[in-house]
Prior knowledge:
Blueprint: E1 9-11, H1 16-24, E2 30-31, H2 46-65, E3 72-82, E4 85-87, H3 93-103, E5 107-118, E6 124-135, H4 140-148, E7 169-173, H5 176-180, H6 184-194
Parallel strand pairs: 1-2, 1-3
Antiparallel strand pairs: 3-4, 3-5, 5-6, 6-7
Helix pairs in contact: 3-4
Amino acid sequence: MTFDDPARLILASASPRRSDLLRQAGIRFEVRPADIPEVMESDESPVAFAQRLAHSKALCIAEQIGAPPARLVLGADTIVVLDGEVLGKPRDPDHALELLERLTGREHSVVTAVALVASDTLRVWQAAVTSRVEMRAAARDELIAYVATGESLDKAGGYAVQGGARSFVTRIHGSETNVIGLPLEETLELLTETGWRRSA
């Protein structure tokens, strides 16, 4: 299978961060967000949870499209894990502050699962990438000021490493684009496996 037209790539996500990363990599794509419930099952590991969501998002849009012609759908899900617990997006500013107070002065993991699904065969290519993030201790006033910017409210763990929360991060072990929301190197490798070809 070869996806000769790079415009055939569809991003099943409304995340502006993922769109920005794909554009920075010179990849042409179309956005069609998938509405998938993000509820963790009782027996799921954090990585399995992220993988299921990424696959479900891509599969949802791929099934809607069908074929011909074949389209390639990219789904992704990013989670923050602290002491084995998945920290989701904050419910409100108070919850965002609570999450940040737990994360600062500690090291946590960020996992992004990526799934590609072909709309004609529903064949799946997938990967999961984990990075470790070290954060310095921070005063409560600093965290309150950051939450007040509104940046944390739609972010896993309540922070955006590419934004104001960068001042709290002392070191990233592994892929930084993974922490932002899409591990570019691994995503490009998956695209290559599918037969997708970047435009000249």
